[in-house]
Amino acid sequence: MHHPAASVIRNVRLDGGSPVDIRIADGVITGIDDSAAAASDTASDGVVDGRGLLALPGFVNAHAHVDKSWWGLPWQSYGGEGGTDGRIRHERARRDELGIPSAETTAHVLREFVRHGTTAIRTHVDVDLGVGLRGIEAVREAAAAYGDALQVQIVAFPQDGVLRRPGVIDMLDSAAQAGVEFIGGLDPAGIDRNPVGQLDALFRIASDRGVGIDVHLHDPGDLGAFQIELIIERTLAHGLAGRVNIAHGFALAQVDAAHRRDLLQALAALDITMTTVAPLRLPQLPLQELDAAGVRFGFGTDGIRDLWSPYGTGDLLGIAWQYARASGLVRDDDLRRVVEIATSASAPFAGLYAGGLVVGGRADIVLLDAENVMDALVRAPEREMVVGNGRILFER
């Protein structure tokens, strides 16, 4: 794919302020100046007319599954049974006939992410006895089409369980040696029915191979909270502070306030992060409590148009909207904070420094027609242009 470089984006607004020009060199923002765009300049190479649009930092999708969508294929009707295990079985039964995983299906997903403004991704990629490490290869192939314009980090994800399928632990270890940034886990109690065993195995690999851990934890209430405590203990014991994430973590929002406060303090002390896909039918992770404790969290689209659910558009701003709406957030400061979490504050989830639209920051920039950041969140207007690492990835 050819992605032309941008050298100047003229006449854009940062959070509703007066127009500025953003200067870019080698994928980095080198200057932000008051806009005095001469019409003659706008025609030269690499100079983009921002038309007075609002500029936001690129969106960070901190929890995706780009390897397993039927995007680009005919409509696939929902089938099989509900629940995590039911969906796993249905996916295992049908994925081969749909060519999942493949670089082609992943390319469709990445295109949807990018045109909606995502420039950095942490994606879980299924690793199991049926596909081996093929999914990781497919994702790497699809991501390579964007070069360094799209930041993609991979979690080797045991979607079918860890201990209940002999050989999966060895496969995760192989993936860690082959260069994935994280290994994943899945409901150590609910799926493997052996929380201590699964977590001990994962932390041993992470410690030995120098990778991070990102665990899917759907188990609710006290059962989920117990596993969060086990994760905290092991993060401390293995010296993995700042390298561990809990995805979903519904239990945190379901336990009583005192228990939640204790968990949040312990998570913050070890910089154990959280990611949410803002599920509509469950209580949301509480913004003010997480921020007050200093627990970093990010948003993700989860799977989109896959054998788990037909829903999803690939729009991370839509997930941020869903989180804000479901959380009852209405004040400007809170809406701004939600957009910050969807963008610059979550850059570390994909292995980037938290930068944003500042001199020295990575030139990941999204232009849209909105009055200010709050307006952009509540309306989620179409993206007019998406720039990743200084390269134009999408233009409407």
The helix content, as a percent range, equals 25-40%
Number of H- or I-type helical stretches: 12
Number of strands: 16
How many domains in all? 2
Report strand %: 15-25%
**Unreliable stretches:** none
Distance between the termini: 17 Å
* Major pleated sheet: 8 strands, mixed
Q: Based on the structure given, which CATH architecture of the largest domain is correct?
A: Alpha-Beta Barrel
CATH topology (fold) name of the largest domain: TIM Barrel
Question: What is the chain-wise order of helices and strands?
Answer: EEEEEEHHEHEHEHEHEHHEHEHHEHEE
CATH class term of the largest domain: Alpha Beta
CATH superfamily of the largest domain: Metal-dependent hydrolases
Structural class: alpha/beta
Envelope shape = globular
Radius of gyration: 21 Å
Characterization of the model:
InterPro entries: Amidohydro_3, Metal-dep_hydrolase_composite, Metal_Hydrolase, Metallo-hydrolase_Enzymes. By secondary structure, this protein is an alpha/beta fold. It has 2 domains: 8-58 and 356-395, Urease, subunit C, domain 1 (Roll), CATH 2.30.40.10; 59-350, TIM Barrel (Alpha-Beta Barrel). Helices cover 33% and strands 22% of the residues. The protein has 12 helices and 16 strands. It has helices at 83-94, 103-115, 134-144, 168-177, 195-209, 221-237, 250-254, 257-269, 287-293, 316-326, 332-342, 373-379; strands spanning 8-14, 20-25, 28-34, 47-49, 54-57, 59-64, 118-126, 151-157, 182-186, 212-217, 244-248, 273-276, 297-299, 365-368, 383-388, 391-395. The strands form 2 sheets. Strands 1, 2, 3, 4, 5, 14, 15 and 16 form an 8-stranded mixed beta sheet that branches. An 8-stranded parallel beta sheet has the order 6-7-8-9-10-11-12-13. Strand 1 and strand 2 (20-25) form a beta hairpin. The mean pLDDT is 96.
